[in-house]
Design goal:
single chain, 396 residues, alpha/beta, Nucleotidyltransferase, domain 5, eight-stranded mixed sheet, 15 helices, 14 strands, 39% helix, binds adenosine-5'-diphosphate
Amino acid sequence: MKILVINAGSSSIKYQLFEMPAEKVVAKGLLEKIGEETSKLTCSCNGKEFKTEVKAKDHAAGILLILDSLASGETAVIKNVSEITAVGHRVVHGGEEFTDSVAINDKVIASIEKFADLAPLHNPPNLTGIRAAQKSLPDVLQVACFDTAFHTTIPKVAYIYALPYDIYEKFRVRRYGFHGTSHKYVAQRAAALMGKKFDQANLITCHLGNGCSMTAVRAGKSIDTSMGLTPLEGLVMGTRSGDFDPAILFYLAEKGYTVEALNNMCNKQSGLLGISGVSNDMRNMRKQADAGNVRAKLAFDIFCYRIKKYIGAYTAVLGGLDAIVFTGGIGENAPDVRQQCCGDLAQIGVNIDPAANAKTNRIEGLITSADSRVKVYVIPTNEELAIAQDTFALAK
Ligand code: ADP
């Protein structure tokens, strides 16, 4: 059975075509610069990478181009698009409503539209992708997989903010959490690597990419996570601040900053970029730090310090920790980050094996020594596969 996975952003569409249940990626690619004069389609299939300049005036045209590339020319991997049994879509915000992936119907679409209010940068393009796929493949099952779904098990004590309660009742202002598909995927892999049933595993998962978040998983369920109403809360990220005193915003507003400027500052000019002043990209920033840039080194240290603080907090709330998992571009590739976050956590039972840590990059592996009570794993995330698995399950 062929399952197409789509992740639609504001001007791009990422896709992967899977053969299920074999979990084999038949083709994958990225269409960029949708709506511009020329768009760029990159496709990996048949053992090669193909790059072409195309014209995609909107997402609907983009989906048609992708389907066309899957079924014709040298990028062809299927004879006809009718071979596609179902399409799985990444959707960022599912509010309190969606606790799992669902088959898309008009009611689901209306809800995704409603939650666009909470994720204005993500839900609208996700929805555009869904509508475009429905138009091109009208008789095919479309499935929505939500970044928030895994976190719907978080108890009230962890999701209610200490604001007047009617702010929650009126506006549904609460912690939702994100990266749920990734946290769940790596948590399940970690349980499997430990030979434990998922519903018996207690874990802390760290998704460290451009966006960063951590989740406390007790008995296979998310019980707390660092992102909140929006992806701004929690860890230090590429350009987002993570936690800080909200009174800073009132203080700056009185100094003349507009709401828009503050929003932009916290989401786009803070984090690694804001502290270092050189880059939002961990690799570049690390280079600068190694070359003696003091603020780049400070950004690195603050990044790791925040993670360590959350490890402490989540160890306390979990009441028993089996493993910590690192994933995402930074988590999978930066042994120095993992070392600095976990290198001196012997008091909670973590003993990093420096040699294993140094060599476990972009691959799955254990980076603690044999005597470490708490295991630490590097597990490359695979959100597309997780979406394909959910879509396959519903298609069956
Ligand atoms: P996204 O959240 O956009 O999916 P990724 O998960 O790809 O992003 O993570 C991007 C981050 O991973 C960037 O900060 C990048 O510098 C970092 N990264 C990638 N490779 C390395 C590496 N070898 N060492 C350190 N950081 C890395």
